[in-house]
Amino acid sequence: MYLSLLETVDGAVPGEAQSVGRRWYWLTPRLRGEGTAARRAWRASYVRRLVLLDAVAALMAAIVGSLVPEDGPLMSAAASTALVVALPVVWLGAMLVARTYEERFLWVGPEEFRRVFSAAALLLATVGTVSWAFELEVARSFVVVALPLATLLTLAVRVALRLRLHSRRARGRHVQTAVLVGHRSGVAALNAQMEREARHGYRVIGCCLPLSAGDRDVFDGLPVLGGLDEVADVVRRYEIDTVAVLPSPELDGARLRKLGWDLEDTEAELLLAPAVTEVAGPRVHVRPVAGLPLVHVERPEFTGVRRIAKEVVDRTAAGLGVLVLLPVLVTLAVLVKATSRGPVFFTHERIGRDGRPFQVLKFRSMVVDADKVELDLHEQNQGNAVQFKMRRDPRVTGIGAVMRRYSLDELPQLFNVLGGSMSLVGPRPHVTREVEQYGFDMRRRLLVKPGITGLWQVSGRSDLSWDDAVRLDVRYVENWSLAFDFMILWKTVGAVLRGSGAY
């Protein structure tokens, strides 16, 4: 089946055929003699490994808890052994009740970890209630040490397994074949998004588009496998794992329902892409309205208690950061002053929340009057259509190149956070010239404070196109939360160490 498809692709568009064929060879396990069942076999193995490691984590936590000395009456050896044996069983039971082993919660997203916390809280509450109701003497070490340690070890195990899986997916293993169904613009956008998020494990191998008679070609590097009315046949012919359907007037409720029925005798999953994109899961809920399950999109939150909490976290963390990094700040200041003529700090006007200008603070990484030389270098711009960037900018000093490589020149912006003009996490602050080129979408970024780090920094920085930068900034503004901020701060560490896009 796959070989016949490759022959079709090779004969479709000469310029694209070879690249598509090469891409297909390493993306499609069927070429190596594997079918749909083999492609999905790893899932059951993953879950079994997860159950085993969760039990081991609980057993280790129970052993550590039993070794902690008690202030009160000592438990008998038999009771202590019983608790050590019981915790792994009870722990797995709590994980099952919290549905932490369901595949839809694994591999990507924070829901898996949230459910682990919920299971631990449920178990802690249950132990407390039962011990109080029946006047049982449960060792404090079991409650204070064993349960929290079991939670931490379980989370560590799941993070490690997930990172291992993402690494394998980056090499083309443990992936699901997918076909995109819809109009060309939507297919192209979803294909690009799935390529960017390869860790989710979807490999798009083709698409189904509205076709005129005899219309078959390659679109956006993907073979066109059929029309909108041929989706079920395509799934059976090529043993597709996932069908992603985009909003299309041709695929109304009745036809989608029929497509779902047609796919029931296959192994394919049916995914429906919403018309509203770049909206995170916590803002989207399915609610019954007039007897119909309708998607409800919560408003983005720009004021209120969560905003106050963000302000408190920002300023507290910035103050602690200044205290901890004070030796580093002083050392960099001395190096900047000693290695080149000019001031230690560089200030520049940027546009902040609600379009208000402010002075961003950085360590000077370029020669004096570097902005006046920029006009002579515009023909060598290696940035995007709006931002000027050069990989080897002649204006950058020696110590400046090192600081920019690891983003050390931006550490003084902690003082901007303390002053209230910036946040730790948010869109990057742009200069007036760049803001004047904003489209309607990009002006959404002015609803929040700019940040020292953000999605832009952890997604490639200067290597990104302007459109990608817009998409990431708007995504953050629409979906921000403290948990999202902490995730970005964690990823910033890796982005800084890699230095990707830093120039």
Descriptive notes:
- Helix 4 (77-97) crosses helix 5 and helix 5 (111-133) runs antiparallel to helix 6 (140-170).
- The protein has 18 helices and 12 strands.
- It folds into 3 domains: 36-170, no CATH class; 176-273, Rossmann fold (3-Layer(aba) Sandwich), CATH 3.40.50.720; 304-373 and 390-498, no CATH class.
- Residues 1-33 have low confidence and may be disordered.
- Helices cover 51% and strands 12% of the residues.
- The longest helix is centred in the first third of the chain and has 32 residues, at 36-67.
- With 503 residues, the protein is an alpha/beta fold.
- The strands form 4 sheets. Strands 3-4-2-1-5-6 form a 6-stranded mixed sheet, sandwiched between helices. A two-stranded antiparallel sheet has the order 7-8.
- It has helices spanning 2-10, 14-27, 36-67, 77-97, 111-133, 140-170, 184-196, 231-238, 253-262, 305-324, 326-339, 370-377, 398-405, 413-419, 432-435, 455-458, 466-479, 482-498, and strands at residues 176-181, 202-208, 218-219, 222-226, 242-245, 269-272, 284-289, 292-297, 345-351, 357-363, 423-425, 451-453.
- One of its GO terms (molecular function) is phosphotransferase activity, for other substituted phosphate groups.
Secondary structure: elements and pairs:
Blueprint: H1 2-10, H2 14-27, H3 36-67, H4 77-97, H5 111-133, H6 140-170, E1 176-181, H7 184-196, E2 202-208, E3 218-219, E4 222-226, H8 231-238, E5 242-245, H9 253-262, E6 269-272, E7 284-289, E8 292-297, H10 305-324, H11 326-339, E9 345-351, E10 357-363, H12 370-377, H13 398-405, H14 413-419, E11 423-425, H15 432-435, E12 451-453, H16 455-458, H17 466-479, H18 482-498
Parallel strand pairs: 1-2, 1-5, 2-4, 5-6, 11-12
Antiparallel strand pairs: 3-4, 7-8, 9-10
Helix pairs in contact: 3-4, 3-6, 4-5, 5-6, 10-14
